[in-house]
Structure formats: C-alpha cells, structure tokens
Amino acid sequence: MSFERLKVKLYCDGAYKEEILKYNQDPEIAGMTTNPSLMKKAGIHDYVSFSQEVLKVVTQKPISFEVFADDIPEMTRQAKLIATWGKNVYVKIPILNTKGISTASLIQELSHSGVKVNVTAVLTEEQIQEALKVLAGGAPSILSIFAGRIADTARDPNPLVKDAVEAAKKKAPSVEVLWASTREVYNLIEAEKAGCQIITVPGSILEKYRDMRTKTLHEVSLDTVKTFKKDSDAAGYSL
Prior knowledge:
By secondary structure, the protein is of the alpha/beta class. Helices cover 47% and strands 17% of the residues. The chain has helices spanning 17-24, 36-41, 47-55, 72-83, 104-111, 125-135, 147-152, 158-171, 186-194, 203-212, 217-235; strands spanning 9-13, 29-33, 63-66, 89-94, 117-122, 141-145, 175-179, 198-202. It has an 8-stranded parallel barrel, surrounded by 7 helices.
C-alpha cells in the first residue's frame, strides 16, 4: 500500500506549541491531539493559557484537550468548560478513572448535550461496546483505541480495532475510530487496513514517515551502513 493513497486522517499528537502551529499549516495533517502527560513533558505549567494560545491559531482543524480531574463531578465541570473554548474542540474523557470507575454516564451526558467527546485510554472490547452504546445518537465523537499499548503487551491490536470500526458503523455512525499510541510508521498502514478514520501520530514519527516513505529498502540499507561507519569513525575505534 502506498502512503500517498492513505485515506486515514493524520492527527499530530503532541504539546509543543511550535510543532502544533507548524502542523496546523500542513495540509496533510487533519487535526491535533494532546494530553496532560505530553503537556507535562513539554514543560507546560498553565493548562488554560497554553490551550488558549494554541486555539488562537488552530481555529479550523479539530483539536482534543483532556480533562485531568479524577472524580466525576469535577471531570464534568472541566469538560463543559473545555467544550466552550471552540467549535473545533473535542473533549478527551478517559473511559475510566484511576479507581477503575467507568465514565460512561459522563460521556453520555456530554455527548447528548452537544459536546464533541474523544473517549480515550480504550483498550478492551468491553470498553469499546460501553462507549459506543452511550455515544450512539450523540454529537460527533472519537473513540481512541490505544493500539500501541495493546501491542506493548504482546497482543495483536488489529482484530480489536477492526471489530470496533465495524461496530461503530452499525451502532454509532457519528463516532470515528482513532488509532492511538502510535509507535512506528507501519502503524499508519495498520490503521488504514483496520478501517480507522483517524490515526494520531507524534511529530517524530510524522517526520520519519515523510523521510522514509519514498525510499527503497536498498537506500535504507545503504543509509544504515553509512551511519555505522560515521559513528565508528567518530568514536575512534580500532582493533
């Protein structure tokens, strides 16, 4: 499959303002996602100020911001506030909190009141069915399946993702399935084959995708050997 023929929409996943603004100008990138962990890694201390600065520029492409509360009432308050930030804003709600309590009732309340929800941290069949049930008939929403984290457990995420795509078509057609926790460029092909509407990709992998997609395997082999040679020369190794 050629990368140029990919139908899956590419979202940039990150929290560096410069990177977000760069990809906002990129016609190949259809949207943005972020989360509290990425924001912490990027050194962001003021959640609201960062988000508002980004939204001054990202006004058309969909962008997801996540609640960070753990109790349902505070999650509700944060979600409703975030939803007011822009028509292109999706509110990320984890499928459960740190106590393992389902957030399905909150997701249903938000979705059916017009809030565009991005249900995140989804890894199981039960979670997928629960989310689709409460999202059905609601506002346009996203179901983020953490395929990369599933693969980290030595399980194949593809059957689960494919089943989620088919289930969404039948039960909740307003829901787009998103391949999350992308680890490598080939995940774009997997997301496409699974029928996902979206894959969210870190900037580093987006750049690797751009660099590698037109290279032959011979060229990659040659580049690899050149890197070995450059590094051994720089290290001054001798036998």
